Amino acid sequence: MGIDRREFVAGAAAVGLAACSHGGTAGEPEPVAPPAEPGVVRVASVKTAVDGGLLPALTGRFERGSPLRVRVTTGERVYDLARRGDADLVISHYGHKDAEGFVLAGLGEWPRTIFSNQMALLGPPADPAGVRGLDDACVALSRIAATRSKLVVNDLDGVRYLSSILWHGAGRPDRAGWWLDAGASKDAAIELASRLGAYVLWGLTPFLELGRTTPLALEPLVLADPLLQRMLVSVVVKPAGSRRVNRDGAAAFEQFLLAPETQAAIRATRYPGKTAVNWVPAGRNNRTAILPKG
Question: Which of 175, 184, 238, 283 has its CA 20 to 30 A from that of 18?
Answer without folding.
Answer: 238
